[in-house]
Write a structure and sequence with these properties.
Helix content: 25-40%
Strand content: 15-25%
Number of helices: 6
Radius of gyration: 57 Å
Strand order of the largest sheet: 3-4-5-6-7
Low-confidence stretches: none
Structural class: alpha+beta
Oligomer: single chain
Largest sheet: 5 strands, antiparallel
Shape: rod-shaped
Length: 279
């Protein structure tokens, strides 16, 4: 037995981890560290890493808004159902292009509004060039319908009057005839003096000629009417006329019917004949 056993009767105490302190020193010699790639770095070549200085974050530049003037110009230029608005859009587009700097948001919209507005305006002008004359023609035709229908009524009244029997004051059968003489323009003045339409006046249509022909204008009208007859029997002749200054420009639209007696003794009234002339 060794001296250690003799002195204490027990072997020397072991450290907590079972390895004497001098063993730890022997197992962990002071050797240089090895890099992850198996090579020993040279301390002379190793340079300390420099820490990057802290930089303040740059503030974000706010995004510029699209020009409201450019947006309005393009919207107005695209409105096709109101004729004046596309032209306004084109004008606003020119103003926006002049005011906005190059590359500004909305400048492209302003540039697009100019040709769009001009093209839509041109289309409106072309449609107007076609539609306005057609509308004027339709309006004139609707007005002249009054004259034609009234002359047809006067023709029917004249034929009826001519075919009826008429007697002299002594009771004898008179030759076939029409209301003698003439009845000048009724109403006496152009309808333009009343704003383009004549208001019905019962007194003007109470003249003997109109009563004999059973003719009267009871509604507002555009035309004046005139009646003239001469002769009796087979020598009877008649002229029935209507005229109206439809545009109140001094140029009258005139309609005329001319009648005479045929070989069979019937009254033949031809027309209407139309023309336009200044009075």
């Amino acid at each position: 037995m060794s001296d250690d056993r003799d002195q204490g009767g027990m072997p020397p105490a072991m450290p907590a981890y079972g390895i004497p302190p001098h063993e730890v020193q022997r197992m962990a010699p002071d050797v240089p560290s090895v890099s992850m790639y198996g090579m020993v770095p040279n301390p002379a070549e190793m340079q300390p890493q420099q820490q990057q200085p802290y930089q303040q974050p740059q503030p974000q530049t706010p995004r510029q808004k699209t020009s409201g003037l450019a947006i309005a110009a393009l919207v107005l230029a695209c409105i096709v159902f109101l004729p004046i608005l596309p032209l306004v859009g084109a004008v606003l587009g020119v103003v926006a292009v002049a005011k906005l700097p190059s590359g500004a948001p909305g400048k492209g919209l302003a540039i697009a509004a100019i040709p769009v507005g001009c093209v839509v305006t041109l289309i409106h002008l072309m449609l107007a060039a076609i539609a306005i004359p057609a509308f004027v023609h339709y309006t004139r035709l609707s007005k002249t319908t009054e004259a034609r229908e009234s002359l047809y009524k006067l023709r029917a009244g004249a034929r009826t009057y001519f075919m009826n029997d008429h007697y002299s004051s002594s009771g004898q059968l008179a030759p076939k005839r029409l209301p003698a003489g003439s009845r000048d323009w009724t109403p006496s003045q152009s309808c333009c003096s009343q704003g383009g339409k004549c208001m019905p006046n019962a007194n003007e249509w109470s003249a003997p000629h109109w009563k004999a022909l059973r003719f009267e204008m009871s509604d507002p009208h555009y035309f004046q009417y005139r009646f003239y007859s001469s002769g009796t029997g087979r020598s009877t002749s008649v002229v029935i006329e209507a005229r109206g200054d439809l545009d109140c420009d001094g140029i009258y639209s005139s309609f005329k019917m001319i009648g005479s007696v045929d070989m069979d003794g019937s009254l033949n009234i031809r027309g209407p004949i139309t023309r336009r002339r200044s009075e």
